[in-house]
């Protein structure tokens, strides 16, 4: 049975500084680099051979993928990049400190902007908007590879992965509010030939 491995990038500089990042390219921190390396070591220890990889076009996801595959001893994996897997665009909030934004607009409003399914931050995307680009790409490009029996690694972001996990785990719009994808932790789904998830584990 093929495996789908979802990996949120390691800690980025703006994760560390508690800023809204969105589509801004920021590098991994030394901790983020280590998280990516450890993810690869876990994949290697689990004996998982990666047949195909996908990543967003943002540097932190691409850097995570490179470090992860190198640590897994698998540096020649065919890879595709797509903006469809990018983090949600945070619009006017990009670059702002999350705590300062909560103090200005109220914690409940900022939680809605960050966690809800359909509420957009000013000038930005909701999770629903992110899903509208990430899911068609997932079903058109990624899942067919898994259904064909390939082990696939996806290096992406908190919200593009939330959109995918929401569908795989059959979560409601209310349940997805509490869904958090941790940095640098490989989430492994076993997928059958019909594209149905059979099991889910974290390495």
Automatic annotation (TrEMBL):
Residue positions of the active site: 9, 87
SMART domains in the record: PGAM
GO MF terms held by the record: phosphoglycerate mutase activity
Positions bound to substrate: 8-15, 21-22, 60, 87-90, 98, 114-115, 158-159
Reactions it catalyzes: (2R)-2-phosphoglycerate = (2R)-3-phosphoglycerate
Enzyme class: isomerase
Enzyme nomenclature, EC number: 5.4.2.11
Residues under site feature: Transition state stabilizer: 157
One biological process term in Gene Ontology: gluconeogenesis
Keywords of this entry: Gluconeogenesis, Glycolysis, Isomerase
The protein's annotated pathway: Carbohydrate degradation; glycolysis; pyruvate from D-glyceraldehyde 3-phosphate: step 3/5
Function noted in UniProt: Catalyzes the interconversion of 2-phosphoglycerate and 3-phosphoglycerate.
NCBIfam families assigned to the protein according to its UniProt record, in alphabetical order: pgm_1
PANTHER family: PHOSPHOGLYCERATE MUTASE (PTHR11931)
Name of the featured protein: 2,3-bisphosphoglycerate-dependent phosphoglycerate mutase
């Amino acid at each position: 049975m093929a495996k789908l491995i979802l990996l949120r990038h390691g800690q980025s500089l703006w994760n560390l500084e508690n800023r809204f990042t969105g589509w801004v390219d920021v590098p991994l921190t030394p901790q983020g680099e280590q998280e990516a390396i450890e993810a690869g070591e876990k994949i290697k220890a689990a004996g998982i051979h990666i047949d195909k990889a996908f990543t967003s076009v943002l540097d932190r996801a691409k850097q995570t993928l490179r470090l992860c595959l190198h640590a897994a001893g698998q540096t020649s994996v065919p890879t595709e990049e797509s903006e469809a897997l990018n983090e949600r665009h945070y619009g006017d909030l990009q670059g702002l400190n999350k705590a300062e934004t909560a103090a200005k607009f109220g914690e409940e409003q900022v939680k809605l902007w960050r966690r809800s399914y359909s509420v957009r931050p000013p000038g930005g995307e909701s999770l629903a908007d992110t899903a509208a680009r990430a899911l068609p790409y997932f079903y058109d490009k990624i899942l067919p590879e898994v259904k064909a029996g390939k082990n696939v690694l996806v290096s992406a972001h908190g919200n593009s992965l939330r959109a995918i996990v929401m569908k795989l785990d059959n979560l409601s719009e209310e349940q997805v509010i509490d869904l958090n994808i941790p940095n640098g932790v490989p989430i492994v789904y076993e997928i059958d030939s019909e594209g149905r998830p059979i099991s889910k584990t974290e390495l």
